[in-house]
């Protein structure tokens, strides 16, 4: 293993130690029971005083990745309030966002994504993290025309509450034929928002590199998109 690879694994292990402690409020004693590493050593790892060896780091990463798989965690993080799905424990939790960044990088890091596209506003934290993970441009479609731009792609869709047609706009300067797009969405209910984004991407002549969706309803819409678009779709939770 090359020196840079060893260092990368060692730093990854330290990051996962701090993520699992922050996410679950684990003590070093609890973590010691999981990893079989003395509390005092784990404390020094977490504080950055020392780094684990490459072999120890690989074992830490393997064990903690199994504990921190996002699809496994999602049912614990989501709150259902009638028809409303509360994702605040996901999109406002820095530890969860770090895990999301790792997942996006792993699944789409070799896809040559140049632009991460979402619709304002709830998907923005996820899109920011995804763009950072992929070193791609962050592109946000909004329900108004941003000042400073002259030409826009436009698409519209129906929202249910209250029932109305709404339009979204994306500056033409931010998306073009050479772009490969990752679409990010927090909740896919009817698929109308995704369809509106796909319309804008078609107008721009860009290609679809994939979809990253936190929660999708079990209503057949996801299957429709899979049939319609030949691109990887990552859904963290079906509901």
Record the SSE blueprint.
Elements: H1 3-24, H2 28-35, H3 39-47, H4 54-67, H5 70-77, E1 79-81, E2 84-86, H6 88-91, H7 94-108, E3 115-119, H8 124-134, E4 137-141, E5 152-160, E6 163-171, E7 180-188, H9 192-204, E8 207-216, H10 221-228, E9 233-238
Parallel strand pairs: 3-4, 3-7, 7-8, 8-9
Antiparallel strand pairs: 1-2, 5-6
Helix pairs in contact: 1-4, 1-7, 2-3, 7-8
Question: Could you characterize what this model shows?
Answer:
The protein starts with a helix and ends with a strand. It is of the alpha/beta class. It has a five-stranded parallel beta sheet with strand order 4-3-7-8-9, with helices on both faces. A hairpin with a 2-residue loop joins strand 1 (79-81) and strand 2. It has two domains: 3-68, 434 Repressor (Amino-terminal Domain), CATH 1.10.260; 74-238, Rossmann fold. Helix 1 (3-24) packs antiparallel against helix 7 (94-108), helix 2 (28-35) crosses helix 3 (39-47) and helix 7 crosses helix 8 (124-134). The protein has helices at residues 3-24, 28-35, 39-47, 54-67, 70-77, 88-91, 94-108, 124-134, 192-204, 221-228, and strands at residues 79-81, 84-86, 115-119, 137-141, 152-160, 163-171, 180-188, 207-216, 233-238. The chain is built from ten helices and nine strands. It is elongated, with a radius of gyration of 20 Å. 47% of the residues lie in helices and 25% in strands. The longest helix has 22 residues, at 3-24.
């Amino acid at each position: 293993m090359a020196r840079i690879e060893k260092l990368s694994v060692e730093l990854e292990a330290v990051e996962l130690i701090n993520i699992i402690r922050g996410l679950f409020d684990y003590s070093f004693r609890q973590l010691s029971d999981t990893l079989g590493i003395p509390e005092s050593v784990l404390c020094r790892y977490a504080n950055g005083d020392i780094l684990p060896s490459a072999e120890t780091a690989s074992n830490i990463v393997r064990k903690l990745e199994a504990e921190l798989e996002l699809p496994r965690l999602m049912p614990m993080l989501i709150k259902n309030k009638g028809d409303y799905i509360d994702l605040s424990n996901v999109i406002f939790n820095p530890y969860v966002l770090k895990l999301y960044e790792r997942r996006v990088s792993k699944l789409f890091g070799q896809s040559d994504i140049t632009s991460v596209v979402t619709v304002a506003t709830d998907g923005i934290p996820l899109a920011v993290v995804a763009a950072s993970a992929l070193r791609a441009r962050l592109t946000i479609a909004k329900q108004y025309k941003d000042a400073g731009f002259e030409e826009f792609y436009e698409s519209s869709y129906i929202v249910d509450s209250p029932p109305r047609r709404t339009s979204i706009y994306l500056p033409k300067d931010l998306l073009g034929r050479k772009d490969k797009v990752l679409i990010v969405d927090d909740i896919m209910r009817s698929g109308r928002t995704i369809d509106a984004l796909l319309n804008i991407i078609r107008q721009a002549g860009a290609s679809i590199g994939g979809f990253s969706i936190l929660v999708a309803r079990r209503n057949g819409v996801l299957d429709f998109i899979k049939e319609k678009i030949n691109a990887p779709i990552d859904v963290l939770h079906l509901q």
